[in-house]
Amino acid sequence: MLKAKTIDPAALELLKKAATDGIETVWDRYEAQQPQCGFGTLGICCRHCLQGPCRIDPFGNGPKAGICGTTADVIVARNLLRQVAGGAAAHVDHAYEAVEALELAAEDKINYSIAGEDKLRQIATALGLETPSKDTKALALEVVRVAYADMSNHSRQPLQWLLANAPKERIAVWQSLGILPRNPDREIREAMHQTTMGMDADPVNLVLATAKQGLVDGYAGLKLATDMQDILFGIPSPVVTEANLGVLKSDSVNLIVHGHVPLLSEKIVYWAKKLSAEAEAVGAQSIHVAGICCSGNEVLMRQGIPLATNFLAQELAIVTGAVDVMVVDVQCIMPSLAQVASCYHTELITTMPIVKIPGATHIPFTLENADETAQTIVRKAIAAYKKRDPRKVRIPDQRTTIMAGFSVEAITAALAQLNPQQPLKPLVDNIANGNIFGVVATVGCNNVKVTQDSFHVEMVKELVRNNILVAATGCSAHALAKFGLMNSEGTERFAGDNLKSVLTALGHAAGLGAPLPPVLHMGSCVDNSRIGDLVTAIARYLGVDTAALPVAASAPEPQHEKALSIGTWAVTMGLTTHLGVVPPVLGSKSVTELLTQGLTEVIGGKFYVETDPILAAQGLIADIRAKRKALGLTI
Ligand code: CUV
Among 229, 331, 557, which is best to mutate for testing ligand 1, by the most ligand atoms less than 8 A from CB? Predict the structure, then answer.
């Protein structure tokens, strides 16, 4: 029997409409791909030179080596290194855009303000820059100079962003392994070089290089991007809104922002408010912005914009017939959106020079023309609204209240209500006494191989029932938001008694008058850096290595190379990192063993693959229990 496509009631409803409307979706194309290539699934095909493609017989009867003599172990390790480098490249490129934006903003060359001065001073202090007397813009330029120095560093010096922010114990481990990264461009280039024909044939060396790419991702990608974005747009603080496709409005202009970099979407949110009179003039109530994927998470965290849906249902958003414009920037954008949009009045708008989709309207976004571009896009949405066909509209009546905006600063501020001198103490005390048994970060995507959202939701329910506090980002956060795990009632319904008592006390101390949610929404994929910062702060407070903490990570439904690079970074932080989808490594027993066991000895963390959500939760709890035991905490 085929597994269900989704557990999201809105998506289920729209899948029926898609069938009636003759729309092909990601699930149809997945079915058409069956059976998927066994060699690819195991990671044992190589296309790195023109003598190939080569593939290894997994049963040992056919070829045991590629034409050049490369083994399955090497093919698997090389493929993984390229994937992780691909993920890191996406995040570093994203971070670079944000650095440029901060530079131009500080030079008054573009119309972006510096809303997060507190963050700027915090980062400058961490980098060892003199902060007190400096003017904001001058200090911003100094911070930018450090970022550019990291990007263009020709010496063998490791990334300053990493040295300033990573835990000391970890830096020592990475240094001893020779994996402290330099200039990220150089490291990514090196990974491409190391994996081309006739290069590295040592699987252990390749896996260590993969770990280095994880560090590139963690510090020159995630951390740098979040820092720059917080300086530009402000540090998130708690917001309350709604999630799921029911947030679309039948009587308003609906504009969806989709992608990852908030430089344009922030402007769209601004101009959507400004131009509402123009929408009223055509008979709409307002201009309503909602988000998909991580651009959605970014404007949710800082502006309280509702979440429309996550990765796997992006096509179905258009199938509502109620989306006037979907504007995309970079990453996780299905090219099929153009085909789906062509069946409705929806205008799909691409904006970046490296993301063009035939059938979409391309409106180039630059930092210099950001306001004009945003206005043009908002006006396109108003114009499209007039063409909306009410007979084709179906907005599922599904929306859930969510609280988001849990930056480390916001969490610390809430904890400071209990202990102003040592804000982390109440959290750490509750972890020590077992009220909070441990912390799991759930991150990453949807994957069509998994019933949409089911793994996130089932696993997290089991975790919070067992008094594990969950922090979520990315499409995992969307999934948990849709299913009521990000509001106070979620704590009443799903949290174990001990966790419930802590969250209730914290919620009241923070002035909510209700418990904090059992899952804290910490932002987009690059905001996994926030989770890293929190873990680093707790470890520092306790004076222990992050690898010793009762903390684990999980990507229950990963699809993107970025999920692999983020997961690799989590492993380098010493965390057990669960994947709910098997990555293409099983073709090599030794590489698989290295990733899931061998690495622990040298780096503290490891990958843990389990495709059943309840077993995965139990496995993570067992891992946390072992760490508690080693720390001498109650178990
Ligand atoms: Ni960046 S990477 S599907 S949007 S989380 Fe969502 Fe998050 Fe994966 Fe993409």
Answer: 331
Atom of ligand 1 nearest to the CA of 293: 4
Instruction: Give me the pLDDT at residue 2, please.
Output: 66
Calculate how far, in angstroms, residue 113's C-alpha sits from the geometric centre of ligand 1. 27
**347: phi then psi, degrees, rounded to nearest 5:** -100, 120
Enumerate the domain spans of the chain. Answer: 72-226, 245-392, 406-631
Using the predicted structure, report yes or no on whether residue 510 has a pLDDT greater than 90: no
Cβ–ligand 1 distance for 562 under 6 Å, the answer yes
Question: How much is the pLDDT for 153?
Answer: 81
CATH of the structural domain 406-631, one choice from 3.40.50.2030, 3.30.930.10, 3.40.50.460, 1.10.3720.10: 3.40.50.2030
In the structure encoding, which two tokens stand for residue 565, read together?
A: 């690079």
Residues in the chain: 635
Q: Is the CB of 258 under 6 A from ligand 1?
A: no
DSSP one-letter string for 484-535: T-SSHHHHHHHS-HHHHHHHHHHHHHTT-SSPPPSEEEEESSTTHHHHHHHH
Tell whether residue 46 is among the known ligand binding residues. Answer: yes
> The complex's ipTM?
0.92
pLDDT of residue 1: 47
Tell me the CA–centroid distance for residue 262 and ligand 1, in Å. 14
Q: Check if 560 has its Cβ closer than 6 Å to any atom of ligand 1.
A: yes
Q: Is 260 annotated as a binding residue?
A: yes
Q: Is 45 known to sit in a ligand binding site?
A: yes
Nearest CA to ligand 1 atom 9: 332
Cα 396 to the chain's mean position, in Å?
Answer: 26
CA distances from 306 to 13, 252, 301, 422, 597 (A): 20, 14, 10, 34, 41
Burial class (CB in 10 A: 0-12, 13-18, 19+), 172: exposed
- Contact (CB, 8 A) for 303 and 266: yes
Ligand 1 centroid, distance to 497 Cα (angstroms):
32
Identical fold between 72-226 and 406-631: no
pLDDT in tens, 25-37: 999 999 999 999 9
What mean pLDDT value characterizes the chain? 97
Compute the distance from residue 206 Cα to the ligand 1 centre, in Å: 26
For residue range 140-153, what is the model confidence (pLDDT) as tens digits?
999 999 999 999 88
**Using a 6 Å cutoff on CB, does residue 444 contact ligand 1?**
yes
Q: Where does 245-392 sit in CATH, by number?
A: 3.40.50.2030
Q: Which two tokens stand for residue 451?
A: 């019933």
N-terminal to C-terminal alpha carbon distance within the chain: 41
> Does residue 525's CB lie within 6 angstroms of at least one atom of ligand 1?
yes
What is the mean predicted confidence (pLDDT) over 294-316? 98
Burial of 391 (0-12, 13-18, 19+ CB in 10 A): exposed
What distance in Å separates the CA atoms of residue 471 and residue 327, rounded to the nearest whole number?
A: 28
The closest residue, in CA terms, to atom 7 on ligand 1 is 474
Percent of the chain scored above 70 by pLDDT? Answer: 100
Task: Look up the CATH architecture of domain 72-226.
Answer: Up-down Bundle (1.20)
